[in-house]
Design a protein that fits this description.
Elements (H helix, E strand, L loop, with lengths): L18 E5 L5 E2 L13 E5 L3 E10 L7 E8 L4 E6 L11 E6 L9 E4 L9
Parallel strand pairs: 6-8
Antiparallel strand pairs: 1-2, 1-3, 4-5, 4-7, 5-6, 7-8
Length: about 120
């Protein structure tokens, strides 16, 4: 099943979807919260993300792993921000890169995994 597909006929989202919450009162989108950070409301509904987003911050880590890996903050199209990993070379991920969700939850680190949509940014000479 493709990522970002609509919920199934019985109303359940696809198993590979990135789920987030939306406040029924003010409409704010958030990821893994119990209360809305805008209005402090507790009436939240769960929705499935389309899986597209933009890297807002990328960091290369060299600890607890044999090779460098990246940790990125991705602003999703729905308006919430999630911490995850972008596949490929850690140094090829930059702020402003467009990404697409590949896996809703990495089995090792329990974070979403993304891939670059346009490939790594290359400066023009």
């Amino acid at each position: 099943m493709a990522l970002g597909t609509a919920p199934l006929a019985n109303g359940t989202p696809p198993s590979d979807a990135l789920l987030f919450q939306r406040c029924r009162w003010c409409g704010s989108a958030m990821y893994q919260r119990l209360l809305c950070p805008v209005c402090a409301g507790s009436d939240l509904r769960t929705e499935a993300s389309t899986g597209t987003g933009v890297v807002r911050h990328a960091t290369v880590l060299h600890r607890n792993t044999p090779a460098a890996r990246n940790v990125s903050l991705v602003e999703m199209a729905e308006g919430f921000t999630v911490r995850g990993r972008v596949t490929g070379l850690a140094t090829d991920v930059h702020s402003g890169d467009r990404v697409q969700l590949t896996t809703a939850q990495d089995p090792v680190r329990s974070q979403p995994v993304f891939q670059l949509v346009d490939g790594p940014y290359r400066s023009r000479s």
